[in-house]
Design goal:
Blueprint lengths: L2 H11 L9 H14 L5 H22 L6 H7 L5 H12 L12 E2 L2 E2 H8 L10 H4 L16 E4 L8 E4 L20 H18 L4 H11 L1 H54 L7
Antiparallel strand pairs: 1-2, 3-4
Length: 280
């Protein structure tokens, strides 16, 4: 997970219609539902429409009776043939326009916000406006060669801030900046840089031990204080644990003694009821 991913995830999670009870949310839920349930036969269409109505549509109509949209009318109109179902689904999906411009654009023809909501991609920034940017993966953006090409990126990393180049071509600068993840201001950029450095220091693969040693050397006095406090706390924990063990042992002994006394009293009572005498 990168910090560009976190930035993209924050942008999508801030979109109101991804979670509220608005008409836009109903359309969004339909786009997710249709993507999850591809249909080939008439029974498939019937089942998907019925499930959508039961899970989302009926609740919306019940809570928002004041909404009289063409979408609601469309869903309520009767359909019978497979062709009519295909037309109905296409018309329902056409209401995607109420969500536009779609945050994150599309990946493989699917709205990125739909993929985010359903699957939570681990590298969301890598598919950010992927289709809109239209990179030809593995080919130089200048001469179209596939030999010795490499991906050049800049922060925050996303398709709009990336370009494929071969050694002979010069980067003409980022394009499609309207599709790039934003850097809000200088303070924000500094924050991202500091977080990236921290991420690299502690979490970069294969660098944990070296980075930890370097960090320890740079903050030796602080670590000595922490280790002293930790040692003291561990010693106190051992003392408390030992006292707890002794208390438990004493409690077990007391319970056993009381149990013996109760058993003796019961036995004596039984002998007395029978007219006998019980001697120690």
């Amino acid at each position: 997970m990168s910090f560009a991913h976190i930035q993209a995830d924050f942008i999508l999670s801030s979109v109101p219609w991804t979670s509220n009870d608005s008409f836009e949310n109903l359309v969004f839920e339909w786009l997710k539902f249709e993507y999850q349930h591809p249909c080939k036969k008439k029974p498939d269409f019937e089942r998907v429409l019925a499930d959508f109505r039961n899970h989302h549509f009926n609740k919306f109509v019940h809570n928002r009776a004041d909404i009289a949209s063409d979408f609601v009318k469309l869903v309520c109109d009767p359909v019978t043939t497979k062709k009519e179902y295909e037309e109905l689904f296409a018309n329902m999906s056409a209401f995607k326009h109420v969500l536009e411009p779609l945050p994150g654009g599309h990946y493989g023809g699917v709205p990125v916000v739909v993929l985010w909501s359903l699957y939570k991609p681990s590298q969301l920034n890598n598919i950010w406006f992927h289709d809109e940017v239209g990179h030809d993966t593995g080919k130089c953006s200048q001469c179209s060669t596939s030999r010795n090409v490499s991906l050049k990126t800049q922060e925050p990393i996303c398709p709009a801030n990336s370009v494929w180049l071969c050694p002979k071509c010069v980067d003409g600068g980022p394009c499609h900046q309207q599709y790039a993840l934003p850097v809000v201001d200088t303070e924000h950029a500094l924050m991202l840089q500091q977080i990236q450095e921290l991420y690299t220091t502690f979490l970069a693969c294969g660098q944990t031990e070296v980075s930890w040693t370097q960090h320890y050397a740079a903050h030796n006095s602080m670590f000595e204080s922490v280790m002293t406090d930790l040692s003291t706390t561990q010693q106190q924990l051992r003392v408390v644990t030992d006292e707890l063990r002794q208390l438990k042992q004493w409690t077990d002994n007391q319970v056993q003694a009381r149990a013996q006394e109760v058993h003796k009293a019961y036995t004596d009572g039984q002998y007395s009821c029978r007219g006998g005498v019980h001697w120690n």
